Amino acid sequence: YFYIIQNGLFTVLVDDVAVAKLDDGKSFGDLALLNNTPRAATIRADMDSVLYMLDRNTFRYTLAKSSAAKHATVLETLSKVPLLKNLFDHQLAKIADAVEI
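-> structure tokens emitted (101 positions)
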């Protein structure tokens, strides 16, 4: 699962050693879902907390939708650049793929 902390405080443990603290607005669980690997850390709640939880399919769907929307926005912006007006759609798409926001 992917977790988003609405409110609370958590400790990130690796090999039973505290390595980080997480609080409101932070998230965890994404790397295991993205890489399809076991979790690399244990997350311990240090107080009563409220979390939002997404399953693997919802997480991946949301990520894909977000990426597609971002790509469309970049492509639309690039198509308005005078220097790029003569490029074919597939060429603009390649440039949009390389843009990082």
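The CA atoms of residues 75 and 92 lie 7 Å apart.
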